[in-house]
Amino acid sequence: MPQITVDYSERLADGFDRPGFAKALHTAVVDIAAAKPPACKTQFRRTEDTTVGPDTEGHAVVHVHIGLLAGRTDETKARLTEAVLDLLRQYVKPGEGLALHASAEVRDLDPSYRKFDA
């Protein structure tokens, strides 16, 4: 915990500083949600196709999912979500003529969540 997944359009590959974003995001999660630094894990998933409305061209999407153990207030989750959006503004630079659609979600992990480290 936390479990972080970032889905992003392939069109952003060169304009998205993923390592820089992950480091800054982990700092924000520690500062805002009281996570422990070694527990922060981020996976990036590049998607090949993006369609927005009727358009298959000219758009790029980034969506950040953050799963936390239960116990954070709605205010804390909202602060973290806003911090994520601010970081995306810093670390994602879409190419000319490309509309960026960025979003984030912070949710509680299901009580069935378990993990192990090997």
TrEMBL record:
Coiled coil: none annotated. It comes from the Bacteria. Pfam families: CHMI. It comes from Streptomyces glaucus. InterPro entries: 5-COMe_2-OHmuconate_Isoase (IPR004220), Tautomerase/MIF_sf (IPR014347). This is 5-carboxymethyl-2-hydroxymuconate Delta-isomerase. SUPFAM superfamilies: Tautomerase/MIF.
